[in-house]
Input
Amino acid sequence: MRSPLFGLFILAAWFLTYGCNSDDSSTDMQSGSDSGQSSTDIAHTMADNSTADSGTTTDDSNPSENDADTPKGDLVATSDVAELPDMPDEPQGPPPLEQRGFMAVRAAIHVHSAYSHDGCDGDGLLEDGTAKPECIDNIRHGICVSRLNYVLMTDHPANMRDYPFEKLVFYDPTAGDELVWDDNERAWANRLMCPDGVTKIVTVGFEGTHTMAVGLKRHLVPKEMHSISIKDETTPEDLQAVVAEVHAAGGLQLIAHSEQDDLSAEVLISLPIDGMEMYNVHANFNSALEKKPERLFLLEPYFDPAPGGPDPDLAALLLLDVFPTPSLDKWRTVVGAKQTTGVIGSDVHENVNVSGYCDPGGSIEGLCDALGADVPYVLAALKKGGPVIMEDGERLDSYRRVFHWLHNRLLVTEFEPGADQEAIVAGRNIAVFEVLGDPAGLDVVAQTTDGIWHEIGSRVPRSGNPILWIQVPPSPVPTPGVAWADAQMDAAELTVTIWHLTEGKEPAKVWESTQWGEQIHYAMEEVGAYQVELTMRPKHLLPWLTPNDDLAESTYRWAEVNPIYVY
Output
């Protein structure tokens, strides 16, 4: 039997201290390690000329329930998979991404700072309203040491709506930052200069109750507009008004916390939103805590300073196998009805604190007494209270750590302010859980009989006999922190699933395969959205997971690719 996943410890801390999701309601795109790159150098294109492969499927409600004995390279025929059609003759693959006019960049969407009431341990502002320098330093550091290119801030509106945009994007001329101005001479973005000479682009947004605006050029007018919630009980007039004002302010209207049941797919389908979360870190914490609260103590190895323990960044695996599917399911329902971009939300605040849990009358007093001798480091952290500091000396919920765990991989035409928004609207996004490795080489496009290649997010006519072309990564590529050996890369087990999404029907798995580095070409014969999903058993991480070896046998979502739509 698999031991409970320790990610719940994270979950517990995050859930109990993170609070609600609302209130009043470089260009180093390649590795993050080189400085002074030109924009033509940028990032893993995810479309190199390596060959690709196909993969297996996962149970939609719990991907960790897959058959571990499925041999690599075999097609998986299961009762819930439609009969697999004959594959067409193998077409010639697409040109590399850069020849198609795009580059892949990393973006964090849904990020909080000292300008959120619950950011920076809920104590980010001085009495005069100035952000504490150490709080700003923390987020700038997290941005700069990450591999991100874009950071789309979404502070809660109670505070942020009263601050100028220069503050909200952490503008520091002494660091070499450059403000970006619109045609009305309003500063709306920051080319944040990092100590290594790499530039990151930071923009302003806000998160209320589900209302998540990104890339704003100005505050909403009147200020009260920031407090309109997007949920079922809100009047249609208010719903339309807030979305219209976000667009008028130059922003995109995304939806935060899609997993919550106070906002239905029907309402989302009725609104001109630009995208919605298919995953949110905070929601994952909540899900894991609810399902397996005993995981609180499974973080013990990540506190233990003794050599040979697991890498603290891999603590993410303790929650990702309790992946909350309601947001993903809701997004797929909406996508079946209309084009809607899916994103993943970092939802990082640097505010996870623990205190009082083991005290008399505390919520886990009994467990503390029973397990104290077995988990001395966890127990000491609980008794001490405050931020959860891992073995590497960094807090569990640091910006750097969360930015490493996951990101949105956007296909942009240039590394410039606003290019990220254009990519989001177009649906050119792949949600990547990079803690498992970089899916470098992944490419998903469609070709019609006229020879035109169509990127993810595109609408293509059925009359064009479109072929979905997938180039699967040859292996997971090591990311900063955990650098496994080449021999271990082959240990990871991959699954590729093609989902067919249509209005009024359950998502259908129409193709599954389990190989690395292979090319898949699938005839999209029916109207609807075709969405590609990659899942993985991360057996290549086994040496870095001890003593939680069982985590390597779990199945995790690795990449969720936005669909191509056939009409």
Notes: Confidence is low (pLDDT under 50) at residues 1-82. The chain has 15 helices and 23 strands. The radius of gyration is 23 Å. Residues 7-352+388-566 form one domain.
